[in-house]
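Page 37, continued from 36.
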């Protein structure tokens, strides 16, 4: 997993947590849902990159 991809995935996760908390604090269900979506996007990106790394390790061996 490249450093840039790790940072991008983590940024989406953090941004999502902040949005979700802000939405919860202001009773903005839309923002809260957006935050959960951003977190899911970050989780997905992270999963894809881990899968790529696993394949690279298998092919390398």
């Amino acid at each position: 997993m490249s450093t840039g991809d790790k940072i991008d995935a983590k940024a989406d996760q953090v941004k999502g947590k902040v949005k979700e908390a802000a939405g919860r604090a202001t009773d903005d269900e839309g923002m809260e849902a957006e935050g959960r979506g951003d977190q899911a996007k970050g989780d997905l990106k992270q999963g894809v990159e881990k899968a790529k790394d696993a394949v690279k390790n298998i092919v390398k061996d």
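The first helix runs from residue 3 to 25. Flag for discussion at group meeting. The chain has a mean pLDDT of 92.
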